[in-house]
Every structure is written in C-alpha cells, then in structure tokens.
Amino acid sequence: MHVILEYLAIGVLIILFITISLNMIEDVTGRLVTVKEEQLYNVAERLVDKILLTPGFPADWGTNIMVSSGDLRDFGLALNGTRAPYIIDPDKVMRLANLSILPNPLLLNYSRIVDLLGISDDYGFRLEMKPMITHVVQPLEWYTPPGNRTSFPTKFKIRVLNWYKIGLPNANVTGIYVIVKIKPGAGNNPNKIEEKKIFAEGNLTDALGETIVDFTDVVPSYLENQPSTNWFLYFLLIHTQWHGFVAVHGYSATSETDAPTQGYIIGDAIILSRELNGSSFNPNSGAIIVKDEIVQAVPQYKELLNITSIIWCRSQPNDPEWCQEVASKVLPSSEDKYLIGKIQYVERLSSHVFVFAQWRGNPICVVINRIPEIDIGERSAQPANSVTITRIAHIYNYPYIVRLTIWRKVEG
Amino acid sequence: MRRGQVRVIELLLAAFMMTVAIIFVMNFTRPIRSIYIRETSDLRRLAYNLLNELATAGVFEDVIVWGNLSGTNWEDEMRLVLSISLPPEVLFKMEVYELRFSPVTGDITFNRLDNGRITNLENSDEAKFTEAESVSYTYVVVGEPDKVRGTVLYIVLVLGFRG
After folding, report:
1. CB proximity A22 to B under 8 Å
2. CA-CA distance, A371 to A293, in Å (whole number)?
3. What is the number of helices (H) and of strands (E) in chain B?
4. Cα separation, A365 vs A223, whole angstroms
5. 20 to 30 A from A185, CA-CA: which of A143, A391, B62, B97?
6. Does the model's pTM come out above 0.90?
7. Closest chain B C-alpha to A4 CA, distance in angstroms
C-alpha cells in the first residue's frame, strides 16, 4: 500500500511539474510575442517620424543635384527650415519618383533608403505616398482644325478620387485649358511662343465623383481662325477644391502613345528623355510653370501661368559650366539617355511645369508633376505580422498621404 | 506506516498548493497587452493629425458652421469627409459641441450640435472596438461668416479598429 501511494505521489508530482513548466514556457513566449509586436510599432513610429519630421543630411539633398544617393548621409523628407510638422520637400519626393517611361537618373532606391534608415538587415518596408485627392482624366471629344494634323481634346470626363480611389462628390473642379501658339523656327531661328490662350470651365462632381468639363464651344472657335503655319500645343490644368482640401493635376496627351511626355525637375534641373529636342525652342520661352495654389484661388488664370526659360545642355564643349558638372558628376554613365536643362526660375510652390520640346519633328508638351505618386518597397511580401502607419502630410498647400508598412524579414 | 502515508499526502497537498499559487501569480502578473497601448497611441496621433488638417483646410467652418447656419444635413457631409480622409480599416465616431460661456456666472455649457450620426459604425451604441482612442480638440472659429467668428467648438473624435 505504501509503495503504491509513493508511486501515485510521484506521478502526481510529475504531472504538476509538467503543468508548471508548460505554463512558464507559454508565459515567457507570450511576453516575447508582445514585446516583439510592441517593438515593431515602436520601430514604425520612429521611422515615420524620422522620414516626415527630419530634413536628412545634407539638408538640401533634394534641390542640390550634385548630391547623389551615395553622398546622402541621412534620409528625411521634411522641408528644410520649416517650423510646422509634416511639411514635405517636393524636390526630395522627386528623388524617389521613378517613371516607367524614363528612369530617374538621381533615384534614391529602396536598398539605399533601407541602408540610410539602418533597417536593411532586420526589416522589410513599403513606403507609399500619394496626393489625398487624385484625378483621372478621359478626353471625350476631339477637334481637328482644318489643315492641321493635330487633334485637340475639347471635352473631358474628370473623376475626382480620394487616395484609395473612392469618388468625391460635390468637389469643385476647374479645368484650365491652355493653348500655346508657336511660330516654327527656320534655319538657325528656334521655335518661338507667340501667344498663350487660356480657357477656364468649372463644375461640381456628381455622387460618383465625376464631372464633365466642356470646351467644345471655345476651343474650336479659337483654332479655326488660326493660320495653319503655326504650331499649337495644349495642356489642361485641373484645380479641385473639396471642403477646403485642394488638388492640382496636369494633363497633356499626344496622338503618339509612346511619346515621352513626362520628366523630372530636381532643384532647377529639368530632366527629360534624350529623344526630345528642347533646344529647338527659344530658350526664353521653353516652359510654363504653374504658380502657387494660393494664387490659383484667384480666378485670374492668365496670371497663374508664367513662361520661363530653360538653358539646355547640348553635350558640346561650349556648354555652360553647370552642364559640364552635371555631365561629369551626376550622369557619368547614362548621359546619352537624358536631356538636361537648367530652368531659370521655379517658384518654390509651383506644382507643375509644362516643358515644350520637339519629338520626332513634332512639338509636344511634357508635363512635370511635382506632387507624384510614390510606391517604394517590396510589394509582393506577405509577412505574418506587419504594422502600417498613416499620416497626412503636405506638399505646398496640397494634402499628401504617407503610409509606411514595416515587417520583420524573418516573418516574411 | 500510517505516519509515512500522512507525510506523502502532506507532500502532495503542499506541491498542489505551490502549483496553484505559481499559476495564479503567473496569470495575475501578466502585463497588459502593450501592443494595444502602442496601437492606440498611433491612433491618437492619427486623430490629432487629421483634426489639425481639417482645421487648416477650413473644414470646420465649411461643414459644421455653415451646416448649422443653413440647417442642412451637415452630419452626413462630415461623415463623408472623415471617411474619405481616414484609412478604410479605421472606425470613427465624432461628436461636436459648442462651448458657451456665461459672462455673468462664468459657467461653461456644452451644447451638442450633431445628431450622433457622424460615424461609420452601423450601430454606434452597440459596436465594439478592439482598440480605440478618443481625443478632444478645441477649435475657435476664425473663418467666415463674421457673426460666428470666435465661436468655440469642442470636438471629440474616437478612432479604433473593429472588435
């Protein structure tokens, strides 16, 4: 009897010890999971603060074209010297943009960013930045002037969407249609801008966030009386106001779908595809900049668009010193892909720049958007545990959504 | 022999009591899930970030003030503004009060302006949040019209995730 009791006692003790051990293991691992999750949030918040509240080093790395990604010592997108939080420098954002038709020669790529943030070994991340209000423009009707090869869209369907593609009803949309009349150059004389004609039409979006902006009366009546010896370029600037939130969108199209109609502006450097010929235009009238949005609220649209000059680098020995520096320091290996120019004057708050150039003999208008959509990181990653932080920041007066998602590399 | 059996039973009882005590202690000393604290702290920052953006853009004047003056259904408009501005996975509920100061007695009264529908919850009284953070924001109306300039709004915004 005594022996049986002893065996029973030992059995019960073993069960008790196992139960305690299991509880202790569960407790410790549970705490570790909590600590790891908390640590991921901490890291994400610290990174978002770092990215949005610090300017990086050198602080002018956005505007200074001579600062390459290798020269950058610290990553941050805040506008240098700003006293308000969440104000982003558009030139720094432009260093993150990478257009599909024209790779950014000064791109700060994913691997360099994670290096600068010091998370390359442990964390994966995705950084998405986009305007809070976006637009989709669809031309509905076209007009071809007599004796002219170029067609002009005259009626547009505009969808105003929020940053995750929900339509915005009752948004006040103003379409500013600009036609630039160009006198073609002959011999050594470059093409010259003779006139810019501006038409404006406004409308409210419907329940789905759609509206029509119609220029079918004004555009044909202007173009039909123009001489066919002139060239005409057009672009549409859309200004949207929704409950105090403002967005601007630039639109230009050519009949040639593969035309390089986009480019970059970094500091005062304009970067376009080498296929374009910018020098064919009079350097004093190479581009139109869109002025500050606050000025745009005033309906004097003609005053909003300033013609400015661009000095193009021609890869010639007599190029300005600035061109030589850019060629040697910035684009040593890919100089033949890009056409570089120095814009004489860019307003700090200018949202778009429209550059005039020739492509395969035809004049085209290149739209440079200074509030681009950015998506950097591993899009295919499916981590077991991730943290996303969202902030509403600003570029100029335009709300700009910044979302950072991070995860541990060991988890996916 | 009997004395030996009693010892064994004592041993078992003591071990059992120790086990129970350890398990109790381990359960009661477990910290609050700090992940929730972190998440709600981020929601708090997002809420202030959004309220500040709305104030800067003049949304409070445009929607709340004009809506109350004109008698339109401004709550639906405010709900739309919040839905559009916040990430889709975030739940929200907003309450808007006008603060009234009595210069005679010095009393402050909260006059609720909204009808309780500025939310994306289907049933805001019964819905449960997994994590939530409530922030309050005081705003002095500075925009037009003149007659309401200086009005003090007290806004409570709750952000959370669905439970």
Report:
1. no
2. 13
3. 5, 4
4. 18
5. A143
6. no
7. 10
